[in-house]
């Protein structure tokens, strides 16, 4: 019986927006995202007088299940996959770092891949997921799973090869990529050693499947051929090499040629405001930004029209190596920032201004978070925290109309800056929920703001 799945379904009928499971040979961690909350079950193998059991922990409660831990995990994975009706932004089955039994971990990886394949085969319709992340022993395990997904929705595949002796060839990946159809794929491979042999296979893959790919990114622990890589972006601090593919041979310009009578008229119809208005009303944030980069004339037309980016979720997290996640109906954007906290704060807010400046529709969720260490700063060292909310207040106040957000979640202290910022969020037809942090990080309160009220009630941290 699917233990965690059934418990969650009793209290929350919403379908998941993202599903992550990480495991080794002794335990597993889950994270099930259900807007605007998430559940984090933990499964741990225990051995007692009655035999092998599993301690399952979630929602601050512990349960003892009389079965091997990976069997309990697989039943939950199968239930979540089979009963999922809505699109998932991401689905992940990956190994945790471990110094345990390699043979046992190999057995568990095989079982998890088989569990995923069986549950996907049991569905009446293909699962719609934008990003799939898997730890595999053989590439064909990923191919089997990907072929059971809706390829029109799939945008990114991340494969983790957890053992040092794992190798791959370009031919292994061709069946995975060739079935992609119109939606180009971003492929990421996580491995131990980036060698000359790996480089050659990546180049073969790029040559044979470039029309179906946007990029291939390699995450490595050691690299032996960096001096030979001239066609890729190398990030030594993140141990990544990214091979981007230029699709300049298929520019939007080719779609904007009109044949008038027998004469070819090089008229860029995307520079006509009425036509751009019609086209852009169906676009989302990434497509709008891509259009702006095509030509100066198109950029001026887009800026004149001011199309709504249709952002559903905007997630900002300030910490060492800050991040932003933007979700739309048909995709997701992730950005990561490097620099001092103050520099990151400025860049995050500037990007927030650029991305949401013309947002007219209501967001489902706006999240503004900060790492625990930032909230522990003494008042005299509080410049970063204060600066973020001052900048956000200025950005929101500069809008022609208040930003609409169904739910605002933010880890804050109730200061004048925060109250001023809240006044710039439209609360006329919905509520705003904030997490208010006291001097102790774990103490929190939930505030509900409406057009004529603000009330506070205690909640657990």
From TrEMBL:
InterPro entries linked to this entry: 7TM_GPCR_serpentine_rcpt_Srw
Molecular function via GO: G protein-coupled peptide receptor activity
Name the UniProt record assigns to this protein: Uncharacterized protein
Species the sequence originates in: Caenorhabditis remanei (Caenorhabditis vulgaris)
């Amino acid at each position: 019986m699917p233990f965690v799945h059934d418990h969650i379904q009793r209290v929350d009928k919403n379908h998941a927006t993202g599903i992550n499971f990480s495991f080794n040979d002794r335990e597993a961690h889950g994270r099930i995202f259900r807007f605007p909350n998430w559940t984090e079950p933990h499964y741990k193998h225990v051995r007692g007088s009655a035999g092998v059991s599993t301690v399952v922990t979630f929602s601050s409660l512990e349960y003892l299940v009389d079965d091997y831990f990976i069997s309990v995990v697989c039943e939950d994975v199968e239930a979540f996959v089979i009963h999922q009706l809505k699109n998932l932004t991401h689905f992940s089955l990956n190994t945790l770092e471990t110094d345990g039994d390699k043979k046992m971990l190999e057995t568990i990886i095989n079982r998890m891949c088989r569990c995923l394949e069986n549950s996907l085969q049991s569905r009446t319709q293909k699962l719609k997921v934008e990003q799939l992340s898997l730890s595999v022993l053989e590439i064909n395990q990923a191919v089997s799973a990907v072929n059971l997904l809706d390829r029109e929705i799939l945008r990114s595949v991340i494969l983790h090869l957890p053992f040092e002796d794992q190798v791959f060839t370009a031919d292994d990946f061709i069946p995975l990529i060739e079935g992609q159809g119109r939606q180009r794929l971003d492929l990421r491979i996580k491995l131990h050693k980036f060698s000359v042999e790996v480089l050659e296979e990546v180049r073969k893959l790029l040559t044979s499947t470039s029309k179906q790919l946007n990029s291939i990114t390699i995450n490595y622990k050691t690299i032996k051929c960096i001096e030979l890589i001239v066609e890729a972006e190398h990030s030594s601090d993140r141990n990544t090499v990214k091979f981007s593919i230029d699709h300049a041979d298929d520019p939007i310009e080719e779609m904007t040629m009109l044949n008038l009578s027998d004469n070819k008229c090089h008229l860029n119809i995307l520079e006509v405001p009425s036509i751009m208005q019609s086209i852009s009303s169906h676009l989302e944030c990434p497509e709008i930004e891509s259009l702006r980069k095509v030509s100066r004339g198109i950029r001026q037309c887009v800026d004149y029209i001011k199309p709504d980016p249709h952002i559903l979720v905007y997630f900002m997290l300030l910490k060492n190596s800050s991040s932003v996640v933007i979700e739309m109906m048909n995709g997701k954007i992730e950005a990561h920032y490097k620099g001092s906290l103050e520099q990151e704060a400025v860049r995050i807010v500037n990007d927030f201004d650029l991305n949401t400046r013309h947002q007219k529709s209501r967001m489902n969720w706006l999240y503004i978070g900060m790492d625990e260490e930032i909230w522990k700063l003494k008042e005299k060292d509080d410049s970063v925290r204060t600066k973020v909310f001052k900048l956000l207040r200025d950005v929101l106040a500069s809008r022609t109309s208040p930003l609409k957000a169904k739910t605002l979640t933010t880890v804050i202290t109730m200061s004048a800056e925060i109250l001023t910022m809240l006044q710039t969020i439209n609360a006329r037809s919905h509520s705003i929920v904030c997490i208010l942090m006291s001097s102790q990080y774990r103490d929190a309160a939930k505030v509900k703001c409406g057009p004529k009220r603000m009330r506070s009630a205690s909640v657990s941290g």
